[in-house]
Specification:
CATH superfamily: NAD(P)-binding Rossmann-like Domain
Radius of gyration: 18 Å
Number of strands: 7
Number of helices: 7
Order of helices and strands: EHEHEHEHEHEHHE
Helix content: 40-55%
Strand order of the largest sheet: 3-2-1-4-5-6-7
Bound molecules: nicotinamide-adenine-dinucleotide
Shape: globular
Largest sheet: 7 strands, parallel
Oligomer: single chain
Structural class: alpha/beta
Length: 263
């Protein structure tokens, strides 16, 4: 799938990994609809990109009507600009930690579990399912008749969740597990599904980590012994969009890091 001349829907596109994807898509001549709750960061990004290649659409991915409104606006924008939808990158996510049982013998709160699952799992699936009917209706491209790409975001926690990551690991493990059945369901439409599972990347989500945690994390890293940069994540998303042979797969992006129990 060519990025140039296409519109991509990016949730969580106002910050971190999603923002790097938005910048990359626009640099390659595509358009990006930024669906996010953070209007300040989203609008600043649209300005940075010159105002015409990206559009900020306020959206809370836990609210299905909010997604519906934002998707409808993205589809209308794609039609106005003549750049049909090319894919969706549901990158909105949160990492609220919580031990399944704490030292005071209190089990993790269901509010915590529900919120993490609502944003990371239900929010991902709901956005994808609402974009899909529009992707399924675009003109197929190239010899393979490709219509679009779904690039989901899991995490190393899908495989090696650390202490306090029960809810987060459940949400990301579920995203990883959805990848193959979704690809199978969508193959008849020429729509591919790729999931990326990053280890620690620099972003707002990880900016507040203590020095102790950062030092511990470095010890768990092989090569390179540093957190990933959002641009390195965006570069793999670009490949996932452009390389038609990537489908139904979860790709670890982690420099061989395997997370220990705690840092
Ligand atoms: N940074 C890492 O180390 C890392 C590692 C593995 C996976 N991830 C995943 O990558 C994705 C992006 O995370 P990031 O590191 O860029 O974090 P980030 O905090 O920089 O960006 C997340 C964005 O999601 C938005 N968001 C949060 N809740 C939302 C909601 N309900 N509706 C709409 N938007 C919402 C936020 O406003 C923010 O702009 C997440 O799914 C995260 O779990 C991150």
């Amino acid at each position: 799938m060519k990025i140039s001349g296409r519109t991509f829907v990016v949730s969580g596109g106002a910050s971190g990994l999603g923002r790097a994807c938005v910048r990359d898509i626009c640099a390659l001549g595509g358009h990006a609809a930024i669906l996010d709750m953070n209007e300040e960061l989203g609008s600043a990004l649209v300005q940075e990109l010159g105002g015409s290649q990206a559009k900020f659409l306020p959206c809370d991915v836990t609210d299905t009507d909010s997604i519906a409104g934002a998707v409808a606006a993205a589809v209308a924008w794609a039609s106005e600009t003549g750049k049909p939808l090319g894919g969706v990158i549901p990158a909105a996510g949160v990492g609220f930690p919580g031990l399944v049982l704490d030292k005071q013998l209190r089990p993790v709160s269901l509010e915590n579990v529900d919120l993490v699952l609502r944003i990371n799992l239900r929010g991902t699936l709901d956005l994808v399912r609402q974009v899909l009917p529009h992707l399924g209706a675009v003109e197929p491209e190239g010899v393979d008749g490709e219509r679009g790409v779904v690039v989901m975001v899991a995490s190393a926690a899908a495989f090696e969740g650390q202490m306090g990551q029960v809810a987060y690991a459940a949400s990301k493990g579920a995203v990883a597990a959805m990848t193959l059945p979704m690809a199978r369901d969508l193959s008849r439409f020429g729509i591919r599904v790729v999931t990326i599972a990053p280890s620690m990347f620099e972003s707002n989500m990880t900016a507040h980590m203590s020095d102790k945690v950062r030092v511990g994390l470095k010890k768990a890293m092989e090569f390179p012994a540093r957190p990933g940069q959002p641009e390195e994540f965006a570069s793999l998303v670009r490949q996932a969009i452009e390389n038609v042979m990537l489908n139904g797969v979860v790709i670890r992006l982690d420099g061989a890091t395997r997370m220990p129990s705690k840092l």
